[in-house]
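Worked example

This section walks through a single chain of length 104. The input is the sequence exactly as stored; nothing has been trimmed or padded.
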Amino acid sequence: MATNPKNLKFQELDAATLPRAIDENVAGIVNLTYALPAGLTGSEQIYKESVEGTKYTNLLATKKGHVSDPSIQALYKVLTSPETQAYINKQYKGLITSASGPAE
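Given that input, the structure is written out below as tokens.
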């Protein structure tokens, strides 16, 4: 059985109402679909899920033997470039983690 030593109160709300409800509550969990249009930013986050091991990570994948294809390499270079990362950070206000290096 879970304990609640701080006597926190939880309220389940419809996802679309969460951004507005944050002003009336101490904290809330809001996904990007609703956070971005509501004007929330990454600087307001107190917790951010790790992208490591999540099933919600986008990957650049190719068929076996095509990793060295010039068009794949060019796309990889653009996706991981500082310019693209800066655009993603600006466009999504720190709510999305931009592309990083190759997968292990």
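What to look for: DSSP finds four helices and no strands in the chain.
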